[in-house]
Amino acid sequence: MAMDSVPGSVGTSASFALRLGQAIFSSASLFFMSFGVGFYSYTAFCFLVTIMGLVIPWSFTLAILDGYSILVKCSIRQSGILLVIVIGDSVLSILTLAAASSTASIIDLLLRADGPFCPPRLCIRYQISAAMAFLSWLLTVASSLFNLWLLPALSH
Amino acid sequence: MAMDSVPGSVGTSASFALRLGQAIFSSASLFFMSFGVGFYSYTAFCFLVTIMGLVIPWSFTLAILDGYSILVKCSIRQSGILLVIVIGDSVLSILTLAAASSTASIIDLLLRADGPFCPPRLCIRYQISAAMAFLSWLLTVASSLFNLWLLPALSH
What we know:
Number of domains of chain A: 1
Helix content of chain A: over 70%
Number of strands of chain A: 0
Radius of gyration of chain A: 18 Å
Keywords (chains A, B): Cell membrane, Membrane, Transmembrane, Transmembrane helix
Oligomer: homodimer
Number of helices of chain A: 4
Main location (chains A, B): membrane
Strand content of chain A: under 5%
Shape of chain A: elongated
Distance between the termini of chain A: 15 Å
Subunit structure (chains A, B): Homodimer and heterodimers.
Largest interface: A-B, 18 and 18 residues
Structural class of chain A: mainly alpha
Subcellular location (chains A, B): Cell membrane
Protein name (chains A, B): CASP-like protein
Largest sheet of chain A: none
């Protein structure tokens, strides 16, 4: 009962909403980045696309797991599973933050540089993509913290 | 006694070493970045300098606190202080990671661009600065985790 009072941990509807948000924001980030044809000419943009390609299946799988857990009322809270989820979330949140801030700094440099580096139509897309990546990072950190909070209660 | 078995938390010699490492690496990062005269022309480099200017006093203060705590054998472990340290470490580690990855991506772009953007003598300095910032981030995350580990034991 005490465990159920942690909203946002695995198997709650708040967690389902967080995972769904992560999947949506990272898909949007990937979408806006990869529709600009020139993304592969900058390392940071390729990095962002790679990381978003990791975050999307991770969030989607965990969203399905949460949905299943809510529907059949079967708890998937085991110390091992939770540890894997916390570590996975932490690693992905670090990578997402690094990718998002790299992308943001590159966009800033491209906007300042004179010349045909950044047509306005593309730059707006890149900016939206970086903003979506930051939002996805925020939700991943939230998920990670909520699950970390639950971990000591399950261990003993 | 059980608390003393967490190496790296506030008031241990491991924590003192971690703080000293953070102060040294962030000072080195600031040093190598600000001796290149052109750092203020890129937002990411200014951001790195700002964050390093925050990390250095923070790490230095906590190193002194640890040293004092070791020398006079007076425990400074209180739930409130520890919470402030954990939150400060987390915020600073997030900012350091963002600054370091922004700097790294800008350096990568400067190295690829043709033209006089990055003279080799300056670029090496920028690269060393980014590497030092990453090392400082690693140590800050380690400090944060060790202290976070201790937090539940102190709360109740």
